[in-house]
Design goal:
11 helices; five-stranded parallel beta sheet; 316 residues; four-stranded parallel beta sheet; Rossmann fold; Cobalt-precorrin-4 Transmethylase, domain 1; alpha/beta; 3 domains; 37% helix
Amino acid sequence: MNRKFKILLARPRGFCAGVVRAIDIVNKAIDRYGTPVYVRHEIVHNKRVVETLRSRGAVFVKELDKIPDGALTVFSAHGVSEAIENDAKDRGLPVIDATCPLVSKVHAEGRNHATHGHEVIMIGHSGHPEVEGTRGRVPGGVLVVSSTEDVSRLEIKDPEKLAFVTQTTLSVDDTRDIIQTLRTRFPAIQGPDLKDICYATQNRQQSVRDLCRSIDLLLVVGAQNSSNSNRLNEIGMEMNIESHLIDDALSMQASWLDGVQTIGITAGASAPEELIDELLQAIAGLGETTVEEISDIVENIQFKLPKNLTDPVVSK
């Protein structure tokens, strides 16, 4: 008996403006300056993106000491600490910074609070590249909290001189609860409510919530170490929908589709659309499919590239 699946595609899904900018930076750096181009850490959290750029001549390294003297260096979209930036300057490495402008905005907010004498709390996941980059951008560092329980354990120097910022890729719901807990415990705390969570993260989360009202199964295409992809998967589970975060079509198990009629598909902000296309083909190989895109959310934000990739090349 031929199975039939109705597939609902979330919109928006996949690449956000910050990811598009970061990938463009590496590609244009290769086009303009040749290879190799060294990238500190994964430019974004997606294996397919990294492999595609590697095939063009990008070399991904964990730390700057793996980069030869004089080699063109790109900082990833997640941002880096001031110490790493200074290390690159001291070594004379030509650098192109692919930090997402929205992450840079969080850095600026944190520095501004610290300049005014505030102790800074960051809502985020300790160890995540964005959090570590922000930690190293704010004078005096930041205190990291990832749950309301963490807030209760905070030891603060002066509750009257306190501020917070947030990682851009968090769950809107979890962050709202943490902010409320912070404001309850520290009424004088300054912060941006939910404004630091980037527009793309919020849009993708809202799209998944809309999707989960009409599906039996949610498939989220994204890397296992992608914070925003994990949040999308968690939203599905919170809404009592069977949900799976998968790297690609090969990661899908056919048994997940047993007894399923309507499948929801979305992708994290670092996942290319080709992975969605491959997943649709894989499902079509298991039964007859109809595909419908849902949501009225339209994204048209674009971020400018660095000047050293857009200014005319000066002939020597």
